[in-house]
Amino acid sequence: MSSVKFLVSLSIAVLAVACAPRETHLTSTATFRVQPSTSTAAATIAPIQTRSPYTDWHTACVDIGGVSLPNLSGSGLIVVNHRTPSGVSSASVLGLDTGLQTPLAEGEEYIAAIGVSPDRQWVVYGLEPMHWQRLPDMIYLQNRIGVASADGSSRLEMELPPDTFRVSHWLDNERLFMSRGGGKTTPFTAILLNPFTGEEQELPPDFPDVYGPPWDGPAPSWENGIGDITYDRSLARAVYARFDYEESRNGYVLWDMEQKRALAFLRSPYLFQTPKWSPDGSRFILVTYGTSRAVQPLRPAFFAVSRDGISNQLTRWDPDHQGLNITNYSWSPDGSKVAFWYSRFDPFDERLAILDVETGAVSDTCIQGDFGGLGTQTEEFSGISQTPIWSPDGRLILVENRYAEHKSQLILVDPLRGVSAKIGEDMMPIGWLTDP
Question: Is the pTM of this model over 0.70?
Fold first, then answer.
């Protein structure tokens, strides 16, 4: 079996040293209802009510460095991949109360952490570098993975079938998502794998007008690692990217897996943002980019969409904030907030902000994600910062500060107190485990 290396998203971060307060505005929310339909083309959104005109944007710069965060005892364990000039080759678990690092696996030449389960009790990791193989109809990766419990007392390793592209994330506390097949003429097929039993479940991409080969070229690579489809934990709902050569028909479709019908359709000329289901599974959040690429500047907006297809537009930017670029984002554990990276004029100058999902207000922390001083995309600096990671209690946010090539700081941010602290160097944050 050929060896494999995992694709790990490189992120960049730099700390902002000066922030100027901006004019704030009233909160903007717009509520929509969607008429259920068996055709995605007929799934339309009609506005019901629109409140105040603009999002309340508040600048609350977080103090950087020289601060000890209190009450870290019992806060859990951080899973990190270590950065080296040659790439990622090892992973550790970092104790927040002790500062001690424990290797994720002993005696391995290569290890890369992939993700933490929703209950924060398990971590999955790769044990071999990726190995590309070309066939007439596909490019795929072979893999060997491991799974370990938070206390390290339980551990297993397994080889994956040779046509596995990669393992990407946990669906729930027992099953992992991986993708199989895919290439120039066929879309990826999602596979659910229970590593504890070896059981697999195939989820074919059988959706109307789903974006992808053979008609559209390669599908968007969403953060979930299985192309352009994401599922809720019950597998009763899916969200997928719909593509049509008529741009006005492009967008995101909420699909009822049991009734085989569309519940919502959100237009967007760009389809690279990953829909994120809330912790309780009641809704997902998504960033859309207006209705046409011809409309400049771009007008990205956060939407929250319920399982039944009721959509709330959470943000509406004032003229000073139009043209924002929004990248990776994540829900707080209680589902009340979303941490996200945004940039304005320089796409390689990202900053961390927090959206209040209920009010639509945004708080800008002034902490940069990407290395803005580089000014261009390279292999080292991808222009997309690693997804913010929330602590189990939702009090802290973990980010990586990439301040120079091959140099980074691991930063814990306390938005409520307005402080942050450095807890490590040259580490990529992957997940947050609870204390054993």
Answer: yes
